[in-house]
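User: What would this chain look like folded?
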Amino acid sequence: MQPPSPPIAAVGAVIWNRRNEIVLIRRGQEPRRGEWSIPGGRLEWGESVREGIVREVYEETGLEVEVTGLIDVVDSLTRDVAGAVIRHYVLIDFLVRPVSGTLMAGSDAAEARWVAYDALDEYHLWTETRRIIDAAARMQG
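Assistant: Here's the prediction, encoded as structure tokens.
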């Protein structure tokens, strides 16, 4: 039997603008391919979490951002039919603000768009993604 892999460290960003909109991307890769989410991805070797979120946001959205706060850390577990864990991500989610660039889908994002906070229910987000966005809204005040 093969030993389990260690958890994969990844980052996510709630990008908020002055019009009370956030960036959502439609995932172009697994996990959750085709679903709407916040931008983010795996950390690279030797990269800090803050460097990773700035890089991932730029690659997926074309936006340069500034980190303004840590929102939360989330475990994403995928199980097989028998209930055994087959994938484990540790997602470190940040509140960020755009400083330059034009929003466009890049790298593994199939689409990217600004979405009004009041319209988020139309996007059928993973419950943890929605919880993170709502926590970011409370941080904004």
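The mean pLDDT is 92. If you want, I can go into more detail on any region.
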